[in-house]
Amino acid sequence: MAFPQSNVQRELTRNKILEELQIQKKQLLLKQGATPTINSSPLTVSTQVVPNAEGGHSMNSHQQRAALQTAHAQSMGYFISQDSLFGNLILPVLPRFDQKKIEERLQCVTGFDKPKAKLEQYITPPHLGSHILYTIQSQFGDLDGKLVADLGCGCGALSIGAAVLSASLVVSFEIDEDALQIFQSNIEDHELTNIDIVQCNVLTIPSRFYKKFDTVLMNPPFGTKNNEGLDMKFLEVALNLSNNVVYSLHKTSTRNHVIKHANALGAKAEVLAELRYDLPATYKFHKKISVDIEVDFYRFTV
Ligand SMILES: C[S@@+](CC[C@H](N)C(=O)[O-])C[C@H]1O[C@@H](n2cnc3c(N)ncnc32)[C@H](O)[C@@H]1O
């Protein structure tokens, strides 16, 4: 003869039965290829993964695989399938970018109207800029969600690329008001809200900004003619501003000097790529239609 159950015992038994029923229901739905949600109503489109015999994961129907492929093809994000406690699917979406898309965006950045030779105003060409930015994000993850500074931003080619690649905020420093007016209209054309512009001489940025930025980007003046040494002064400021990493372009002919200078400032210098900077004839003193300059693309860690 069974002893009569107390209220608490009855409650416990009922809960146990309900739990078992939930598990059975889930297993049943998994076998049918449907996706149980928290309230167990199946979704019409799913990309569920189930553990396979080897302990790995496999898509559990053609329909689901097709849905994931469609999502990948049509979306600007990467979909990652995961198991959840409830056996249903979570699809986090990571921003997707590719070098071509960035290049297309940079091709729509308006450049200097009347470039000023004494400020060494050359826009970073879209092809070069997109490779640089793509490398910074895809190899090092140094843009997405980061606080970024762009020194000598000009009309904003690098800043706009960094903003498109989901920097949390880009603060862009430039001395020339005319360039910044063009930059402002570029920001509006690109409908970006994660860029702040500061008009100032980069060499006088106050020390309260030191170590405030995760990533510093720059295509600085190369320090030619009347600007001798300006590239290294920019580098010094960049290393002061960053708490992590600086990316910059410098003439290949100055490589030994740049690396020595960076080391003396306590930074590790790495040449990520040798590039050809195709400089179109911009100024009256340029005699050729265009000239290729060999440029190193650096990553400095502070
Ligand atoms: C080679 S351009 C690069 C422009 C832009 N970053 C790009 O990638 O297209 C160098 C920029 O540095 C700016 N510049 C030069 N000296 C500066 C200074 N002391 N402070 C701030 N900006 C400066 C110039 O006006 C110019 O826009």
Automatic annotation (TrEMBL):
Occurrences of domain Methyltransferase small (ranges): 144-237
Q: Which SUPFAM superfamilies match?
A: S-adenosyl-L-methionine-dependent methyltransferases
**Which PROSITE patterns does the entry mention?**
N6_MTASE (PS00092)
One annotated GO molecular function:
S-adenosylmethionine-dependent methyltransferase activity
Q: Identify the InterPro entries for this entry.
A: DNA_methylase_N6_adenine_CS, rRNA_MeTrfase/Polyamine_Synth, SAM-dependent_MTases_sf, Small_mtfrase_dom, SOSSC
Q: Which domain of life is it from?
A: Eukaryota
Family the UniProt entry places it in? Belongs to the methyltransferase superfamily. PrmA family.
Q: Please state what the protein is called.
A: Methyltransferase-like protein 5
